Amino acid sequence: MGRAIVVDHKILPPTEDQLRQIFKKYDTNNDNLLSREELKKAFNYLGSVIPGIRANRGLHHADANKDGFVNEREMDELVKYAVRAGFSVKA
Fold it and tell me: Which of 1, 8, 39, 77 is the residue whose CA sits 20 to 30 A from 60?
């Protein structure tokens, strides 16, 4: 299931904070907004077999102001969506 962390020979999915940092890393133009394409690349990095669909669903769940981007205030909803989709465990 995507990127994982190995601790004491146990494989753990990324934490919510690590997910947040991964999403921020994919803000490639540094405008503090995540576009559909940036989200697609982030979900691809996380190991999604359907990153375009994950990006669309992430926007649907997180984009409260419906501008087509995920901003800092909307990031928590994006992370919650990623957790529900199985990309993390609750810390």
Answer: 1
Half-sphere exposure for 56 (CA within 13 Å, toward CB): 4
HSE-up of residue 87 (Cα within 13 Å, Cβ side): 28
The pairing of strands 70-71 and 33-34 is antiparallel
In this predicted structure, the answer to whether residue 12 has a pLDDT above a threshold of 70 is no
Share of the chain above pLDDT 90, in %: 75
Closest by Cα among 41, 75, 83 to 59: 75
What is the average pLDDT value for the chain, to the nearest integer?
Answer: 88
What is the pTM for the complete model shown? 0.83
Instruction: Tell me how far apart the alpha carbons of residues 78 and 56 are, in angstroms, rounded to a whole number.
Output: 11
Dihedral pair phi/psi, residue 17, rounded to 5°: -65, -40
Residue ranges of E strands in 1-91: 5-7, 10-12, 33-34, 70-71
